[in-house]
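thread: overnight batch results

M.L. [08:02]
morning all. the overnight job finished for the chain we discussed friday. pasting input first so we're all looking at the same thing
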Amino acid sequence: MSGLLQKGKELRNQTPPEYRQRPARQATRRRPDTLRPPTPGRKRSPLPLIAALVASAVLLSLAAFMVSGVYDDVVEGGRNSAGADVATLEERVKETNVTESVESPVAAMLETLTIEQKIGQRFITWVDGTTVTGETERMIRDGYVGGVILYPWNIEGSDQVRTLIDDLQAAAALNDPPIDLLVSVDREGGRVSAVRLDDTIRLPAAHYWGQHDDEEFVSAAAYLVSRELRSLGFNMNFAPVLDLYAEPDATIIGDRSFGADPETVGRYGIQYVESAERAGVIPVVKHFPGHGMTTVDSHGALPVVDKSADTLRNGALKPFISAIEHGTPAIMTAHILFTALDAEYPATLSEAILKDLLRDELGFDGVVVSDGMSMRALAAHFSVRESIKRMFHAEVDIMLAHNEYDVLELIDIALDLYREGEISREQIERGARRVLELKHDRDLLSG
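M.L. [08:03]
and the structure it wrote out:
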């Protein structure tokens, strides 16, 4: 591992060809410049400027007169059409705002998509085999899914996985309209890594990265992992783990965590997110609001955490807050019941945790991804229909059909929920918009 840090530093200073800087989420759209500098050596007549000033003065006077007239009519209880004039003006403003919003690629795409397609974009699903089959093509075509996740059984070699991903994207390019897939993978390091090829880097679990007590090491390691994933065709990685190593249990989080100190884990998480972004891979921090306080594996049962809200805020939540403040684009949820936050629903299905806490209190407006839907923490306690309904209400943007379930059936269930009025068009479109914004930021919207 002695050469890893130096190699990472060298690569981090290079800008890979696939990388595209993600614009700030809150940045306003710049208006194109309409004025050109005067041609050198050429005098411009002052007449156009004088004419423009006179015209502006006339328009300002007319506007003042109109505003004054409306004000006087309202105050004096004059002609009844004043209210109608104001209403008409408001409608024109609304129409202008709608027109401007539709001009953005994301808004334009939303206008184009059917309700079924908007639902499909909100699912990431598994695929069968190491090549694109007719069934996979049908799933991409009929389901219009937002992405796929690849597992070890999909990955036999570097060239094979590149071809597989190329063929998956080619199938998505045949859709109308074409939108690229999010091609995701679990590659944390250590025991959780779907990519285990002879010609790829094998790094230990995050806990051993943290033992170097060096943010540069974490940054370099994260860049190497992400850059290699990008070279294989992946554009999303379900990492880093920002859970705390609070309960030493190697069967669950254990060494998947950077450590037990919230501030340290938060700093390492920021380094990981920034390096992954530089390498052109979307990082998904997990498992919000924290999986490190339980020794129960949510793959097999529903963990329950009875810690107070203050304890959570002073511990498990801190690394996620740091990641949010530094612009993490995506967060994965935990299938855990936090009784102090929501005594009825686990985090993945909880409006109190995902809407009230994550969205409203912590201000996260990125993409929320569920952990696997077929994990027993959900499947043993809630029907598939109830889980999908609750996730739409809780503003989970991407539902991870990670195995077992047929994603076309899941999309049909969501469509039935919409037709029966149990989820709204607004709830469907809000999540679809976030997914499309993420794709647009990464040049995945054009197909």
